[in-house]
Amino acid sequence: MLTEDRLNATFTALADPTRRAIVARLARGDATVNELAAPFNMTLPGISKHLRVLERCGLISRTRRAQFRPCHLEAGALDAAVSWIEENRRIWQERFDKLGAHLRDIQQASPAAGGQDHE
Length: 119
Hints:
Helix 1 packs antiparallel against helix 4. This protein has helices spanning 4-14, 17-26, 33-37, 44-56, 75-109; strands at 60-62, 71-73. The protein has 5 helices and 2 strands, in the order ααααββα. Strands 1-2 form a two-stranded antiparallel sheet. The protein is elongated and about 75 Å long. The protein has 119 residues and is mostly helical. The protein has a single domain (1-109), classed as Arc Repressor Mutant, subunit A.
């Protein structure tokens, strides 16, 4: 079960374009901090701050391999956020469908305006 705090933390983390780029890179496979930092004009401490945010909300984990600490995407955390988005998308789609049907009913029930403007 995805708690509201975890969901908020996930969306807050993903609100930043640098963190989204890091998540996208990790979707292709594990990477070290240096590999993740390469495309950015940012210091290693700056990248590390982004990684800590992603790690705190559970989107990534870090392991130790010899002197390296590769980062790994935790897809389950993204799956939970995607599930929340999909459920809300479904609810709003149903509401829009009902609104569309209601508007069609109103238009069909209205007498033809015969080119006159409605006030």
